[in-house]
Design a protein that fits this description.
- The structure is a single chain.
- The protein has helices spanning 116-129, 142-160, 190-198, 230-252, and strands spanning 12-15, 21-24, 26-45, 48-67, 75-81, 93-98, 183-186, 209-213, 220-223.
- It has 253 residues and is an alpha+beta fold.
- The strands form 2 sheets. The chain has a 6-stranded antiparallel β-barrel. Strands 1-2 form a two-stranded antiparallel sheet.
- Helix 1 packs antiparallel against helix 2 and helix 2 crosses helix 3.
Length: 253
Amino acid sequence: MKKIISLFLGVLFVLNAQTLATPVYSTVTATQPGFGAKDTMTIWGGGLNGVDVYAGVYMLNKTAGTGQGQYLNNGYVGGFCMDLSEYIAPGSLTYNVIKPQDGPIPTTFLGETMGSAKAAYLSELWGRYYDPAWSAGGSYTSLQNSNAEAFAAAVWEIIYENLPTSPAGWDVTVDGTAGDKGFKATNLDYQTANAWLHSLNGTGPTTELWSLSYCGSQDYLVKCPPIPEPATVAFVALGSILVIGKKKSAKTA
């Protein structure tokens, strides 16, 4: 489909289409994605009305990064579309790394950024049910394709629907939000998507996530890479200085 961190190395501020200041913690440069496990479903939401789309894992080919973005390994990174209002822009793009609760950008068909409660649901959804095999490359089984598609539907349900009074209120087949907002889908394994959503009670494993945001192309939800603690970074830097010092001393001797 279309279009964080424990250690903050530097914070910039940008203005989104709604002129709201959004903290940007680093950048990730990646080329146009391919796909991991995926399938086709029909969706309503984010300005789309009964549109058939690929839903599942998007494979971003990461080539560079700044700040925390440098800790995301270069190569293919699996993620999920957060932004139904924009198509995939071609070529190499430099995405801003923001917190999921501050996205997606723009908020045209959402009305506001998703907020911390929805971000917590996404963190638990990923922690409980994301399967790395969906982005392993090569061919995928029909079950892997179906599950990755169901996961994508659950992501969009969380982002685009109003928060229910309890997790049992999530339903990817019903648009429960008044007006022109909300989300629903057909032609997918909705039983699996809904079962996953109904289990999100705040007690399951969670995963720290990033939003890769680019105004003019889809935004993506990806797993936050391990970020070295400040003490570790300082220790490694000190070790490098000591090694250099020893080499200089050996030369002068």
